[in-house]
Q: What sequence folds into this?
């Protein structure tokens, strides 16, 4: 890792405003500040969430909640290869502030690559039409 | 009666033997636990190298215990020259005051030692006897012994401090003391548990509800406040009065502060289930609603916040699904176990909608129902989407995590709980009957919320139509006409799994039972095959897998019986409901008012007292909630609009039952019931 934010992470943040209407459907409101680090280098992302909308900037400042973790971990989170709460429980990431914001934010994380719809699998295995 | 003595505050708890000692156990959770980690696994007291023997134990409070001890074997303690009092309390951390009393007329020197150790086992490592992957160290300091555990960023510490001067080594503390004639010596041992966050501070320091461990006085004040806030019970029946008070105290003690979430949630049961369970917390909330409605919203809100949002095979997660179990320990963090959270439960999702509706019916809190419209609709969608795994109009389950997931994802979740009458086990997926009942009820309750709060009558009509179709389908596919009861489940071929089980009682509660079938169902529930005299057995005594001490295949579960009594009441079987109330409350007397998770299914006539299930959890939240729900059933408490309907049917022999200041949208209301026979003897 060179210190730059990964391509997947850049792409992830770029899509948030467009995805927000489908993902942030409840009455969530507040600002989440993320500090994503590689070695001594930190990148800052700031997400202002409201019902149906997410505004993403590279600013820093007071927020309702803060998330800290490595660029490597964040890359895994935004590609569905890591789990947000597990990484917190093993202390690979840290969160402070209004937990509801993180619970809302993690809904942007995708499904693990290669995951199939359990209904299709079950109907296939019991010989029923999908 | 119990070999173990437990104290608890939220999800911090300590389990020791009757002397107050903790010895490392590979298969039972003895020790000091907090957030699913064992912070003390050894805590053994000796005086002059001798173990002590208990004279008596005072464990009247859930957060405090006193042990009165003497050295040596029971044969020669009558002329003891020395005795020891261990007085311990728990409140976020653990403290023990150790007092050595010299009863002789001369000065005596003693060598007092407390052997100490911390293995930092995760609760699941104890269940499965696994070895630790990280590094543990013990560092002696000045009157302090520090145990540290590290695995990558995961960092836990236990710090034991002594108020008296101690000689500290990595395995404990030794005190060489000289006690005057008829004098005493005391030290206070404080045990702090530390959960480090990424920046080297205790993560609990950032919790909104405050970082400092609560003092015993604060815990006591909170318990007293909760009991004072609950309706007052006046009654002639002492078992009922005792169970009610015990239940309120245990429910207060089982509330814990979620490490990540900063709200007070309800833990399910000591010692295995000191964490948030979807199903358990929902049933407990349903039981508590008429008594302590304001303890319920944090649970509903958190279940909504942690609702599933994507497909995750390891965690059996799907969009809209309500969680099964949330854990905080090492195995959840390193994904050796799926509880972060785990979603392997087919019924918690419809139950979530049922609780939200029942909550509004009691409290009139439409703001919460509006706030949770999206998760509630998500839950209702899950029933017909991912819940209907096979596309047949029923909720099915089959784990996608065969290694650490749950095979059975209904309340009877042990491996052999779902069987045919002859004892064979069906394949997967399975659709258990009570889950279909919950789905039916959830649709009708969702329809009520859609119509009255969400302003969506079209959605309400759709849900009601779907509910009616489900009821018709269910009464066709699950009913066994020749045996006059509902099958326990459908197997993967859609054929009935024909065991006679207590699950049919939950169907009455849900209202999915056709009117002409309710009579035969009630007759089975109170018949000799299912009813033991104390309560309804999980499985009828003539079924292939019946075992009176089998976890879900023959024992009597108080919570199960409370739901069944509610169901019988709903269909007008008041006398039958009263027999269950009487049986369970009589049983509670044998457990000091504290109903365990389960007790044996033996005939009441055979044993005269209920035999405790060997490893039953106690206190257990939904068992503690049981006397509350039974009270509701006996008094016939049912919200209707802005009023509370009171329609008592108190079982014969129970005398007067009076509940004052029942809170709800009507303000405070009193209910009074009395059993019909005038000459009832007062029960002792």
A:
């Amino acid at each position: 890792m060179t210190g730059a934010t990964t391509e997947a992470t850049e792409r992830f943040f770029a899509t948030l405003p467009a995805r927000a209407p489908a993902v942030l459907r409840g009455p969530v409101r507040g600002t989440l500040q993320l500090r994503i680090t590689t070695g001594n280098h930190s990148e800052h992302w700031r997400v202002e969430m409201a019902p149906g909308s997410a505004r993403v900037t590279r600013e820093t400042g007071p927020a309702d909640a803060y998330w800290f973790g490595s660029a490597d971990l964040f890359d895994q989170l935004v590609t569905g290869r890591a789990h947000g709460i597990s990484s917190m429980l093993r202390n690979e990431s840290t969160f402070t502030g209004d937990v509801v914001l993180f619970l809302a934010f993690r809904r942007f994380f995708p499904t693990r690559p290669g995951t199939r719809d359990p209904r299709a699998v079950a109907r296939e295995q019991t010989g029923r039409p999908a | 009666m119990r070999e173990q003595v437990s104290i608890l505050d939220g999800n911090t708890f300590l389990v020791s033997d009757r002397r107050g000692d903790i010895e490392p156990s590979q298969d039972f959770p003895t020790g000091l636990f907090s957030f699913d980690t064992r912070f003390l696994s050894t805590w053994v007291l000796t005086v002059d190298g001798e173990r002590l023997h208990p004279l008596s134990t005072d464990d009247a409070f859930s957060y405090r215990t006193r042990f009165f001890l003497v050295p040596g074997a029971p044969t020669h303690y009558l002329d003891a020259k020395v005795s020891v009092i261990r007085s311990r309390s728990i409140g976020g951390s653990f403290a023990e005051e150790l007092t050595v009393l010299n009863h002789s007329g001369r000065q005596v020197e003693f060598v007092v030692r407390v052997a100490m150790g911390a293995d930092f086992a995760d609760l699941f490592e104890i269940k499965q006897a696994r070895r630790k992957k990280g590094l543990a160290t013990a560092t002696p300091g000045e009157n302090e012994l520090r145990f540290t555990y590290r695995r990558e960023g995961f960092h836990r510490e236990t710090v034991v401090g002594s108020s008296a001067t101690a000689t500290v080594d990595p395995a404990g503390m030794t005190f060489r003391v000289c006690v005057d004639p008829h004098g005493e010596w005391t030290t206070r041992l404080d045990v702090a548990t530390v959960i480090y966050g990424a920046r080297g501070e205790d993560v609990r320091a950032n919790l909104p509800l405050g970082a400092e461990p609560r003092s015993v006085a604060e815990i006591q004040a909170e318990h007293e406040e909760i009991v004072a806030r609950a309706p007052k019970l006046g009654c002639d029946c002492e078992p009922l009065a005792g169970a009610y008070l015990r239940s309120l105290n245990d429910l207060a003690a089982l509330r814990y502060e979620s490490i990540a979430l900063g709200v007070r949630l309800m833990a399910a049961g000591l010692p295995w289930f000191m964490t948030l369970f979807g199903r358990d917390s929902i049933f407990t909330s349903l039981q508590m609603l008429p008594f302590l409605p304001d303890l319920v919203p944090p649970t509903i809100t958190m279940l909504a916040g942690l609702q599933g949002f994507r497909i995750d095979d390891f965690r059996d997660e799907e969009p809209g699904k309500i969680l099964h179990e949330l854990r905080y320990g090492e195995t959840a963090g390193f994904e050796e176990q799926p509880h972060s959270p785990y979603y392997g439960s087919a019924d918690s999702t419809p139950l979530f909608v049922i609780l939200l509706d029942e909550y509004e019916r009691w409290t009139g809190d439409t703001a919460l129902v509006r706030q949770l419209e999206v998760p509630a609709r998500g839950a209702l969608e899950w029933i017909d989407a991912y819940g209907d795994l096979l596309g047949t109009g029923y909720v099915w389950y089959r784990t996608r995590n065969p290694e650490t997931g749950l095979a059975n994802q209904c309340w009877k979740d042990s491996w052999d709980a779902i069987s045919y009458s002859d004892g064979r086990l069906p394949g997967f997926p399975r659709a258990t009957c009570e889950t279909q009942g919950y789905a039916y009820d959830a649709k009708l309750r969702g329809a009520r919320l859609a119509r009255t709060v969400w302003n969506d009558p079209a959605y309400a009509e759709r849900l009601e139509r779907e509910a009616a179709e489900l009821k018709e389908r269910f009464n066709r596919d699950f009913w066994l006409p020749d045996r006059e009861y509902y099958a326990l489940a459908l197997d993967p071929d859609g054929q009935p799994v024909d065991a006679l089980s207590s699950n049919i009682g939950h169907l009455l509660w849900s209202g999915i039972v056709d009117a002409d079938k309710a009579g035969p169902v009630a007759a089975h529930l109170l018949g000799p095959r299912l009813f033991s005299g104390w309560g309804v057995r999980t499985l009828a005594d003539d079924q292939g897998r019946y075992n009176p001490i089998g976890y879900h295949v023959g024992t009597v579960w108080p919570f199960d019986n409370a739901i069944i009594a509610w169901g019988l009441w709903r269909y007008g079987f008041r006398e039958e409901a009263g027999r269950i109330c009487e049986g369970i409350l009589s049983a509670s007397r044998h457990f000091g008012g504290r109903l365990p998770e389960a007790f044996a299914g033996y005939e009441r006539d055979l044993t005269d007292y209920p035999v405790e299930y060997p490893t039953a959890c106690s206190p257990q939240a939904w068992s503690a909630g049981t006397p509350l729900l039974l009270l509701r059933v006996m008094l016939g408490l049912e919200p209707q609009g802005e009023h509370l309907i009171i329609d008592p049917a108190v079982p014969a022999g129970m005398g007067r039952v009076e509940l004052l200041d029942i809170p709800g949208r009507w303000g405070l209301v009193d209910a009074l019931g009395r059993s019909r026979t005038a000459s009832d003897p007062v029960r002792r």
Observations:
- Chain B touches chain A through 50 residues (CB under 8 Å).
- Confidence is low (pLDDT under 50) at residues 206-211 of chain B.
- Chain B has 18 helices and 30 strands.
- Residues 457-477 of chain B form the longest helix (21 residues).
